[in-house]
Amino acid sequence: MWTTTFVLTFLFFLIQLGTGFSILAIAPTKLAAVCRLTKAQFIVLGFTVGASATGILLGGLSLFVSDIWLQFATMVVVSCFGLAWSWPNWGPGRDETRTAATWCILSLPIALLTWWWSFGAFSSFPFADIGADVHWMKTAQEYADGGVINPYAAQSYVDLRSAVAGALAGTLGLDLLRFSWTYRFLSILFFLLASYAFVQGVYPTSPRKWIAFFFAATSNAVFLMTNGSLAVASSVVFLGVLIGNARCDANGPSARSALLLTVSAGVTLLLAFAFNNNTLALALLMAGLFLLRIPSGTGSSGGVLFLGCIWPATLLLAHRGSYLFVPIVLASWLMYLAIARMISAWPSPSIAVLRLLSFVLPPIILGLVVCVAGMRFGYIPSMSANDTFSSITELILGRRIEGGEELFLGSGPLVATIELGRTIGPVFAICTTLGVAWWWMTRPALRASSGAIGRHGDGFVTLVWSWIAGCGLSLAVLSGFPFLYRISTIILSLFTITATEVFCQLLIDSGPFPRYRRALIATAVTLLATALVVLVYAFPWRTDLPFARYQAILRPVELAGIALLVTLALLTLIQSRRVYTYGLAGIVGLGVAVDKVGLSGINRSFSYGALPDHTAVVSHYNADELELARWLRENLRKGIILSDPYTLGIVRAITGAPAAYLFSNLDTVNETVAKRAKSVVRTILQPAEGDQRLAHTCSLIAPLVGAINSETFFQMRRADALGGIMRSVRDTPAPSQEVAQPPSDVAASGIPEIPPEEAKSTIQNILVTGENAWNLVAIITPRTVEWTHLAADQRLSYFPSAAPMEPAIIDALRAGPFPVLFANRQTVVVRIPCSR
């Protein structure tokens, strides 16, 4: 079963990659050479295009073709065409086989280790953290059962998993729960490929790229491919492509080319923001690729437009966070050009400015971190810049930062410090900072035999640029502006280049290194990592700390890493230059990896809270709730479910059933909607007369369900609007159900159009009796009962309750006007017969 899941997961990536290649095939094949794209960079671009485009194309195809097998076969054909047509641009040649083998030798074990400490150590199949995966799994299961992708479920972007995973589930039987495990491992491999594509841009021919890739792989902070993480990873590769093109030109790109690229990217951002439609954005992207086929499109101006318009457009298609990523990448690239021009005019007083910035920025960052820590522990009065930031968000987004909203959850220096800290880690930050200080004190002045100071090479530009740009962006993130911390991956990539340059210039380029200095460096990194593991990561100061039980899970991995560090430290004493160089690189990379493992255990409590007693896995559901979800999957053919958001999460993911209210994340349910839903549950549980309780419940449920139905109508504007968010869980009835199929279960195609008012009336009166009736069911668990008593600013524990349902509640439900459909140790499912 797991072998099948691995094969289907690999097929998932191939389909999206091939679809992206098919779209890129619209443009001239020479553009890849004009833009100097390496094969790894071309693969990243192709997947970025195909990840979102596949979902859009399958969604459009499902409106006209009812057979999911035909839809799937069509996309396979399109993908195969792209893979075959673009083979010269991505297929490895004979001289690249060794490079590919080296990448695999490094990547596979690193990816496995990263998968373990980021996911596998905290999970036990079938239980896992799928709280953030609810929406794509629900959409995928819904699509697998009915053959129509719900357009309303896409919301602001098309999730890159739901369409292809749903097609594989509906045709080849992909298990979505197992897929969520294998998908993570292959996601990490893709991010490692993106890291290699980035360092290829910075070091096109230099052997430094393998050291840079090793540092990037061991410090990788992205573990799951979502639309946002794909966009930021492709943004990093985009930066590498821009740097690579600048380095290949003798004097860098001309001012005209740089201005044209910047302006075209800005126009692309404005157009995408104005249209705000994924399907239209894809159509414009394809039109832009076609326009590049005009004769002048394969020249240098065509390459500039390709990089300025096409790549940013693909990023915007993947995720709205690219409105932030693209300007950051362009600003970093322009800073590189500016610093390169400064240093090319050697001698120049600007070098002193760069030196000053290199020494001043780190203490400022440290000061901000200390201030945030002081405010967190009450030593410094708390300060908030939300009023200042609200003026910016109101101008750009048309809304202010208000408490309880998602925008508020992503703001603040504390959140930014935590996110930036766990992305970079103390070992990497300390070692890189000390290395830069050492380098400035020993290496910046290069003198010729005559004593004159000579010009610095590309290494000087690369190191100074990456360090100053990384520190400057870190300061911006620590300001606490909402969701600016999402550029942390870009910052880490810049610091990776800094670390590579420091390592190579101090330990490789300078010739044989004295043994005592090698031992000093190896010992310092090993002791730093060991001190963090022993004093912070592996052994808690107090057993009552929220992260104490998380630390115990990762302790064996951390201690094994420390033992390996000691072994590598001994290798640095060997006289062979190759051996001690690899040993030192291994110590730095492994020390950073051990640091990331320890941070993972610390940060779990920030995301999920303390791990409850007798709980060994990170999961918001347990065996009873999984049993409930699978029972509903098999028996509830047409149902709208109502419960607390955590229970709704697992039920929607397994069944694909619609919910009585919508939410984007488990802890960001709209307060007004939550109050209505809580009132319904409380009324069901209250000890009142049966008819009175039923009447009161139905009066409360009508506006809750009516609102979502109205939204569905205006989003879909289709006669079979019930085939969208109110789609049935299964197309064929269970053995205990009637064979007759209601019209709402018929596939989308072939249904005649009906007047809009009649369609709207059908949606609003969905709970009436008859063949179109839907079952409204309420799921009651101990957590649901607890949820109804929470205040607006309170949240449930991420972990499910271990206590059984109180017998008194079960007895009251059985004696009430709501038929009990299912019950186990912790869950009760009742039908709300509002239609009678």
From TrEMBL:
Keywords: Membrane, Transmembrane, Transmembrane helix. The chain crosses the membrane at residues 6-28, 40-62, 68-87, 99-117, 181-199, 211-243, 263-292, 299-318, 324-344, 356-379, 423-440, 460-481, 487-508, 520-541, 553-574. This is Uncharacterized protein.
